[in-house]
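*** Protein under study ***
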Amino acid sequence: MTREEAIKKLYEEDPKFREWKDRHDELDKDIAKLERHHPMTHDLELEIEKLKKEKLYYKDLMEQRIQEFMKGSK
């Protein structure tokens, strides 16, 4: 099973994984929107940094779940 197949299967079958992925994608869009803001203020930079940390948190959760899933499906 490829990584992409594992992600697709987890997204379809694991509600927690789906929640994490949806939140990760939502944060990605929010960050992109904020980064287009001009002029960039210090408060905006702090908000972007906070959102990036949260996005990374969800990425780490998903990565751990993907690795567990792929080990179990061998």
